[in-house]
């Protein structure tokens, strides 16, 4: 089967510099949703018709299995399909999709292509309470499809028809060139309508079949930010339902956002307003508090992630405790039972079994062993203004509060670092590290007072 995705339209009503089909839904361009669905049907040719913002579209979705056909002027859906014709295999049918209709299920498309077989013309239709704006399916005395009439060309009786053309069709390919050639633009919009092809197909003796989707939202297109917002909620509700069906507890399925993929173990709890991006894997019995943003992460079984924690490109072991307000940046690797508390930032660092950094610290470019306690206000000074350097802290070190570790530096096993120490050279194992400082008690000091004006 050939698949052609029409995506040349401008999307004026989006009021945006970004081509319409590149607006994200669930974090991914509309057109990418359509391409990904198309791929599941294993097409022999996959062609995207581009026009407005064509270079940006090409750059965003270009892939070895995708070919592009340029429609320089948007003269209608029939004209758009004609641009793709030279790239199609005439011996197999062609399925036409729209780049701005992102949520059609593969099963629905298969139902349509199965119904049409090799030789029939198939139309995906749906019956709407309010069909305004859509092309109407005109049927004859025995219920056979006779033609499709656009809203702007329909008479009063035709406008009462509530079965509409979703735009998704499948057609035999060999005769298509002749049918598209014969299209005329003597209609209300002065366009070459793909919908007029159905009459040529009938005249040429092809059967016309229709199929319907399971859900109306599968056929909804995006022409405005309002419609984009509606489909975003449909997508998110579906994603939430999938998790619920798999046994995840969501505090509120209406306040859950997935922009990528997530897999959860048993007895996972996710509180409100969390956003999951990229690829996220969550183990059994994980509890995620409200307002967390988690991207490309693995979280081990029994870990608790408290409110407002941000995790990006990081992994967390089992039975760890994060947050509230913790931040794991790329390359953070936390072993089991690690605690990372409020206002602690971890970047490109390994933290060993059971180690804790509970308050107000920066741990960057570091290797921290097991059983280490990082006191409040500890900073790894990893950057000398030009290069990054590593801090190594071996097992069972106690780092006193307000310590600066000037990298590169190594702190040996079992070391105790006194509060307020600047560690600028390596510390041998099992020693106490401190900076000599004196505390002075000055008498007779008078605190300044505010001048009276
Ligand atoms: C089309 C159908 C209408 C159907 C409706 C469903 C025709 C003539 N009408 O109308 O029966 O009910 O979709 O949403 O087909 N496009 C191009 N090049 C063009 C024109 C359009 O690539 O020259 C693309 C658009 O980017 C879009 C799709 O084709 O992805 C549909 O175009 P649009 O203008 O939205 O068609 P409608 O007038 O809504
Ligand atoms: Ca449309």
TrEMBL record:
Output one GO BP term.
Answer: cell wall organization
Q: In which pathway does it act?
A: Bacterial outer membrane biogenesis; LPS lipid A biosynthesis; Nucleotide-sugar biosynthesis; UDP-N-acetyl-alpha-D-glucosamine biosynthesis; UDP-N-acetyl-alpha-D-glucosamine from N-acetyl-alpha-D-glucosamine 1-phosphate: step 1/1; Nucleotide-sugar biosynthesis; UDP-N-acetyl-alpha-D-glucosamine biosynthesis; N-acetyl-alpha-D-glucosamine 1-phosphate from alpha-D-glucosamine 6-phosphate (route II): step 2/2
Q: Does the keyword Phosphoprotein apply?
A: no
What's a single GO CC term here?
A: cytoplasm
Region of interest (N-acetyltransferase), ranges: 247-453
Q: How cofactor binds (record note)?
A: Binds 1 Mg(2+) ion per subunit.
Q: Does the keyword Lipid biosynthesis apply?
A: no
Protein name per Swiss-Prot or TrEMBL:
Bifunctional protein GlmU
| Species for this entry | Paraburkholderia tropica
The gene name on file is glmU
